Amino acid sequence: MSQNHTDYTSRFAIDPAAAAAMGTDELRHNFHIEDLFQPGRVSLTYTHYDRMIVGGAMPAGAPLRLEAIKPTGTKGFLERRELIAVNIGGAGTIEAGGQLHELQVRDMLYLGMGTQDVSFASVDKAAPAKFYLLSAPAHQTFPSRLIRIGDARRLDLGSKEACNERSIFQFIHADGARTCQLVVGMTQLAPGSIWNTMPCHVHDRRMEAYLYFDLPEAARVFHFMGEPDETRHIVMRNEEAVLSPGWSIHSGAGTSSYAFIWAMAGDNVDYTDVDPVAMEDLR
Question: Structure pTM?
Fold first, then answer.
């Protein structure tokens, strides 16, 4: 029998003028998310950026149920929402609507609005699964779909000279699984490369969240945020997430190579709908 071990917190939306006046602790309190993966727990952060929920589930014993939380105002978590779960840990399973899905590392499962009885489990308790959870409000139901990392659309970008050689894996795109507003993908930095999303951009029509992972214990990523002419940074450890409002840049440089999962929610799912920022405009 599954167990209900769910924790949640809320994050209110911050405007750019307020963020510009914040110190390190205030920035981390409002934009940084840690302790996503706790053994035997589902940890959720309800944000007021497009009502995105960012969370983690790490089943270490009995399966963990996906339970509704107070901010959603519904009896079931997916009653009026859609969800994407990406596994960054050991092999795991997700049971949803009476169907069992097996996820290896870096596989993703999309669950449409109205899906009931969702639970997470690990195949091997000694190597537990770590499900990164992303959810946004939905207006209609699209079919649930398992997308393995090998089936994602891959784009190889950057160069060794610019220290940003990387592979982008688009789980959600126009020719693949359909969603209401969730757009999720993963970027893998090549050995020796450290920069992501530089030159940077903003997209005021969509918020974004980053989860940095596959970082060595002592390594860090310096995540840059803020308006282009008023930038700030947050120091990230392995398996920590950061929120990026629509008005903010989102870019990072690490002390080693790493991977990160990016997720967006908002007015559209068009990857090209961005406002580029010229390097000379960064301050």
Answer: 0.96
